[in-house]
Amino acid sequence: MPGFGIMTAPMQVGYQDVLRVWRDADAIPEIEHAWLFDHLMPIGGDPYGPAYEGWTLLSALAAQTHRLRLGLLVTSNRFRPPAMLAKIAATVDVVSGGRLDFGIGAGSRPGHPPARREYEAHGLPFHDFTHSVESLAEACPVIRRLWTETEPFDFDGAHVRLTGAFCNPKPVQGPHPPILIGGRSSATLRVVAEHADLWNIPGGDIDDVVRRSALLDRYCAEIGRDPASITRSIHLPVSYDRPQATREAIAEAVAAGFEHIVLGLPAPYPAGVARWVADELVTASV
């Protein structure tokens, strides 16, 4: 049986709007997880509209919900040094009582101008895509070690260098929060095969999604990992006006082996939208 969640992109909305949807969803068992994104400026709508910092907002929502699993879809590894990110994520897992799903990715590609501008605007370096994927491949084991090792350690990688690295408190979840890696490039999928518990890809072209899933299977086989050990996750945009189209997209994804369905809710959020999702999309699709 697939598991369903919602995604509320925290841009062009108010904090109370997001909080209302998450609190409503927290009381609806059909909705199992909820997500934010990780952008520092809007990537749609008014380019100077509000956009909330993902991890800060996630911690606030974690403190005001009780059941939902929660995370960022997905954290940009470009924004925060991995050891700092491990500390932030461990804190959120503690605040949530062990409900964090740790989403991470390589970061936006250079060819996406609305996302690219946030790096220059915040004084963040923006390297090429090869650099970003290599950095992600180093960040994943570093973060896992910080969550699980009980003694300080040094790390001397090509992109990550740490001396006396240590994380306390540890996450509540053992051995560590599930790691979800998002992306579709072949280079990112190799990192997924090595390090992920879940893999997320945006929906839209189901044939491409199926090809990417098969490529992940191949990369898993090459390193001796069971492909079934990686849960397949997909993000599908919701249409309030055309729910049947969303239901059809869900059916295609489930038939393709995707068991973790994230339903992206466009803003503004109608009153009772979480209940509507449960009744019109989740219950109608299982």
3D structure, described in words:
The protein is an alpha/beta fold and 286 residues long. It is built from nine helices and eleven strands. It has one domain: Alpha-Beta Barrel (TIM Barrel), CATH 3.20.20. Helix content is 41%, strand content 17%. β4, α3 and β5 form a beta-alpha-beta unit. α6 packs across α7. The longest helix is centred in the middle third of the chain and has 20 residues.
Please give the structural blueprint.
Blueprint: E1 3-7, H1 15-26, E2 33-36, H2 54-63, E3 69-72, E4 75-76, H3 82-96, E5 102-105, H4 113-121, H5 129-148, E6 153-156, E7 161-165, E8 179-182, H6 186-195, E9 198-202, H7 206-222, E10 231-237, H8 243-255, E11 260-264, H9 273-282
Parallel strand pairs: 1-2, 1-11, 2-3, 4-5, 5-8, 8-9, 9-10, 10-11
Antiparallel strand pairs: 6-7
Helix pairs in contact: 2-3, 3-5, 5-6, 6-7
- Strand content of the residues, in percent? 15-25%
Strand elements, count? 11
The CATH top-level class label? Alpha Beta
Largest sheet: 9 strands, parallel
Shape: globular
Low confidence ranges: none
Q: Kindly report the spatial arrangement of strands forming the biggest sheet.
A: 3-2-1-11-10-9-8-5-4
The third-level CATH topology is: TIM Barrel
Helical content stands at 40-55%
Structural category: alpha/beta
N- to C-terminal separation?
8 Å
Assigned CATH superfamily: Luciferase-like domain
Q: How many H/I helices?
A: 9
CATH architecture descriptor: Alpha-Beta Barrel
Give the ordered list of helices and strands.
EHEHEEHEHHEEEHEHEHEH
Number of domains: 1
Q: How many whole angstroms does the radius of gyration measure?
A: 18 Å
Mean pLDDT equals 96
